[in-house]
Amino acid sequence: MARIHTCGSIEHRISRRSLLAGMLGGVGGSGLLHVAGLSRLIEPAMAAELAAQQKRALIFFLAGGVSQLESWDPKPGTDTGGPFLAIPTSVPGVHISELLPYTAQQMHRLSLVRSINTAEDDHGKGAVFMETGRRDSPAQRYPALGAVVSRMIAPAAGALPGYVHIQPGGGGVNKTDAAFLGPKFASVGVDNGKPPANLLRPGDLTPAADQQRNDIRRKLNQRFTARRRSADTEAYSYSYDQALQLMERADVFDISKESPQDQERYGSHDFGRHCLLARRLLEQGLTCVKVTHTNYDTHSENFDFHIEQLGEFDRPFATLIDDLAQRGLLDSTLVIVMSEFGRTPHINHLMGRDHWSRAWSVALAGCGIQKGAVIGKTNENGTAVADREIDARHLFHTYLRALGVDSTANYPGVNRPIPIGDPAGSAIAELLA
C-alpha cells in the first residue's frame, strides 16, 4: 500500500511528482505558437553588457517544502531536532544535517540564509511569493524569477530558449510564469530530461519539403504583415523561426552524449539525470535552468522521507556544484536552492512536520554571492527567527543584484512603470560579493 504523507492540497492531489505540470502545454505546434516575438523590447545597451558577462542562473526548487531541520539548520539534542546529527562542513564552525554529507564538503562554495519568515503556509501562495518576490494577488500577476532572468540577461536572439524547467511529469511552455513579460520569456518544460515535444522532424518529411513549406509560410507572413502588422502576427512568425533553430540544437538535451563516467557520477535516478542535463544546458549557453525535485511535503514519516529525498538530492547536487567550479562556470552562475516554505519544528503525531514559513532556510552559491557565509539565525530549537529576519522580497532583490540586474528599476518595454523587485524589499547587502 502506498504511503500518503502529503497535505492533500490541490497541488499534491494532482500528482506529488508534478507540482505544476497541469499548467503546461506542448512545445511543438500550438505551444510554440504563443512564444512572442518581443526581442525589440530588449534595451540593446543593457542586454549587450549583461550578455558579454555570460551570467546565468540555476534554480533548484524542492517542491512541497524541505525541512530546514533536516537540511540547512539542524537542531540536534533539542525538543524539535529529530534523530539526525549536525555534521561539520568545509567551512569551520558551520554545520548542516548529516543527510547532506556530500553537500557539506562543498559548503565553502555555498552560503546559507537561515532567517527566512515569509508568513505564507499555503503551497501555491508560498511558491508564488518565493518565485516572484511578491505575494499572490488576483489583481496583478508578476513574472517568476526565471522569466525575469531570461528577460533581463538572455541574448536577444538565439536558438535556445532563455529559461528551461527540468521536472518530472510535465513538459511544454508554461504560459503563465512570465506574466506580463509575455510567453517568449516563459519556461520551456523538459519532462524527465526528454527534449521538448515535437522537436524532431517527422521521418516521412524530407528536409527539402520542410524548407519549401517554411519558405511559403514566410512569404505569406510577409504579405500579411505588410498590411496588418501586429504583436500577435510577429509572435506567430517568431515562434516558427525559433522552433526551426531549436530543431538544429536538439542534441543539447541529449545527456547520452555525456561520458559514461559522468553519467555514473550523477546517478541513474531522475534527479541525477536532471542535474547532468542542467550542467549540459548551462555549458551550451542556456541562461536560466530550473530543476524541480519533489515529494518534500512530509506531514507523516518526515524522517524516512527526508532520508530518501535528501539521499537522492545530496550527491548529484554536490557533484554539479563541484563540476561548475572546476569548469570555471560557478563564478558566473547563480545557484539557488529554495522551497515554498519549511517544515514545523514540532513533530506531529504521525511523525511528520507540517507547513512552516516562520523560520526556515535557503542555500545559494556562485555569481555575486559571498562564499561560506551564513546570514541570520533561528533560536535554540528553531521555532522563531532570532536575528536578521528576511522574506522573499529581499531574496528576489538579492538574486537579481547578484546577476548584475538593477532590481529597483522598472521593467523595460512594459507599457506602465512596474518595478522589477518589490519596493518594500531590498537586497541582502552582506550576502553579496
Category from helices, strands and their pairing: alpha/beta
Spatial gap, N to C terminus = 50 Å
What is the architecture at the second tier of CATH? 3-Layer(aba) Sandwich
Q: What is the count of distinct domains?
A: 1
What do the pLDDT scores average to?
85
Strand content: 5-15%
Radius of gyration: 22 Å
The profile of the biggest β sheet is: 10 strands, mixed
CATH topology (fold) name = Alkaline Phosphatase, subunit A
Percent range for helical residues?
A: 25-40%
Q: List how many beta strands DSSP finds.
A: 16
| CATH classification class | Alpha Beta
SSE pattern, N- to C-terminal: HEHHEEEHEHHEEEHHHHEHEEEEEEEH
Describe this structure in words.
With 433 residues, the chain is of the alpha/beta class. The chain has a single domain (10-431), classed as 3-Layer(aba) Sandwich (Alkaline Phosphatase, subunit A), CATH 3.40.720. Helix content is 32%, strand content 15%. The protein has helices at residues 10-14, 30-33, 44-52, 101-104, 123-132, 145-153, 207-228, 231-248, 260-266, 270-283, 302-326, 392-402; strands at 24-25, 56-62, 86-88, 95-97, 110-116, 163-167, 172-174, 188-191, 288-293, 333-338, 342-343, 355-356, 360-366, 374-375, 377-378, 385-387. The protein has a ten-stranded mixed β-sheet, sandwiched between helices. Strands 3-4 form a two-stranded antiparallel ribbon. A hairpin with a 6-residue loop joins strand 15 and strand 16 (385-387). Helix 10 (270-283) packs parallel to helix 11 (302-326). It is globular. The protein starts with 9 loop residues before the first helix and ends in a 31-residue tail after the last helix. Mean pLDDT is 85; it is low at 14-44.
